[in-house]
Amino acid sequence: MKKAFPALLLTAMIATGASAQDKTDVTQSQTTDLAQSQTDVKQALTDVTQSQTDMNQKYLTSDSQNQSGKWHSLKVGFDLSMTMSLQTRGMKFQSDALDLTFGMGGRLNLLASVEYIDAHHHHTSFEGIGLGGGLSYRFGNDNLNIGKAVFKVGSTVGNADWKHTYYDVSFRINPLVKKQKSPLFIGLGYRYADSHTAGIGDRSFFYASVGATF
What is the gyration radius of the CA atoms in the chain, in angstroms? Predict the structure, then answer.
């Protein structure tokens, strides 16, 4: 009996050690799994935060593009002007014009124009309506109106006294450039008139104009 007791004691100690080792292994496995789960959660939160940051940056970029005038919805404006030219080879003209502008809020815009033209050749007056189109390029920004450059091509229509096609380039400058949204402008321009009426040759005119932009 005395000889068997040490053997039983040794067997119990071995069994107890094995059980403790098993418990340690299980605990370590659970700890590892828990740490891995926490790591996965942190990575998921990081991914969500990065996605939100990217989305915010996209919206900020879009807002910046809108504010800088790079793209907007279609905008329509118009210029009213009165023009008087210098005399060239016994002829001069004056006109009242309405120019419509179409654009996306940027500097470059399309233009459509209608004019009442009253030309004087020596002591004879020639009246007519001109229709045209072209481009305008704005200088400055949304808060500072410096002026614009305008190029247009037009032709008299209907029963005009002087039938001609005209090619026109002008620079319209805002004299109150420090005042935001000032509508007033003065302009200097050049017009070449290709005459289609017998007895009246082609003409080149230099002119000045005043008007307002809306």
Answer: 41
CB 137 within 8 A of CB 172: no
Residue 166 and residue 7: Cα distance in Å, rounded?
122
Portion of the chain with pLDDT greater than 90, in percent: 47
List the one residue out of 43, 211, 33 whose CA is nearest residue 136: 211
Q: What is the C-alpha to C-alpha distance for residues 143 and 190, in angstroms, rounded to an integer? A: 29
3-class DSSP assignment, residue 50? helix
Sign of CA dihedral 42, 45, 47, 50: negative
Helix (H, G, I), strand (E, B) or coil at 31: helix
Residue with tokens 């233009």: 111
Instruction: Decide: helix, strand or coil at residue 105.
Output: coil
pTM of the model: 0.63
Positive or negative: CA dihedral 47, 49, 55, 58: negative
What mean pLDDT, rounded, does the chain reach?
79
